[in-house]
Design goal:
The protein is mainly α. It has 4 helices and no strands.
Length: 102
Amino acid sequence: MTTSSASRFRDITDQDLLRELTRLAGKGRALEAELLAHLAEVDLRKLYLQEACSSMFGYCTDVLRFSEYAASNRIAVARAARSTRASVRSSKSSRISTPNHQ
């Protein structure tokens, strides 16, 4: 921690610091979920092609400046989430027949 960082937290109580960290972690999770939703939609629309990238991975690493690890993981999660949502929509629109037990 640099001196300027240390002085930034000098007057904050331990409890306030912990409370703020918890709040920021929650905001980070919400922001990550929104980021993944956007990645899924860009991937679906293949918008990375408009940015002169041949793949979603290239877009994430070259344009968004994600590490290769972060790009791979986020793309995989975004695609899995999109696939899961599509499966749920499909199953909701299908009739599911179950035997009538009496």
